[in-house]
Amino acid sequence: MAMVETVPWVAVIMGSKSDWEVMRQADETLARFDVPHECRVLSAHRTPAQTAEYMSQAESRGIEVVIAAAGGAAHLAGVCAAHTLLPVLGVPMESASLKGLDSLLSTVQMPAGIPVGTLGIGSAGARNAALLAIAILSASRPALREKLRRFRQEQSEKVLRETLP
Ligand code: RP5
User: Fold this and answer.
1) Is the sign of the CA dihedral 37, 41, 45, 46 positive or negative?
2) What is the pLDDT at residue 6?
3) The pLDDT value given to residue 122
4) How many angstroms is it from 161 CA to the middle of ligand 1?
5) Which of 52, 49, 67, 53 has the alpha carbon at shortest distance from 9?
6) 142-161 and 123-138 helices, crossing angle to 10°
7) Rounded mean pLDDT of the chain?
8) Which residues of the chain have pLDDT under 50?
């Protein structure tokens, strides 16, 4: 039987395999909403040519949103944004030495002209990047928008069911 290749709507890029334990939460969130996506390790400094090539081709491949996660001198999201007109969402990874403050500042503080939409450090940032990508995609996809609305509703109901000791 011929395999039907699904065109990814979202590219989840991370600077190192060591980012996967956190970034798998973006992967899981996108999967929960049945959003076609692909996850790749690409580094702004270890694989600069391949990162530029991948990002230059992303839009013509059908990708609509890019999530880029990196730690330390976290220039990956900015480099990705420099090679595409697609929206790029940056997720700063927690680093051993500075707890991700270095990653946050180097991702968020883009000079004017090439924007990166920066999320929070670590797990919350990974999950929120996926949810923000879903919100962007759902502007033109009513079924996805409805899933997002139901997710918010279930989240609210869960909070309201909480009891304190
Ligand atoms: C960055 O350096 C990666 O995004 C990762 O967060 C950090 C450390 O990478 P490894 O040394 O663990 O490969 O490029």
Assistant:
1) negative
2) 83
3) 98
4) 40
5) 67
6) 140
7) 96
8) none
Largest CA distance in the chain: 56
Rg of the chain over all Cα atoms, to the nearest angstrom: 16
Does the Cβ of 19 fall within 6 Å of ligand 1? yes
Residue type, 89: L
Probe target for ligand 1 pocket from 16, 45, 76, 123, with the most ligand atoms within 8 Å of CB: 16
* 85 closest CA partner among 108, 63, 111, 110: 63
- Look up residue 129 and give its two tokens: 């990047």
Total-model pTM: 0.96
At residue 44, the pLDDT reads 97
Say if CB 117 and CB 89 are below 8 A apart: yes
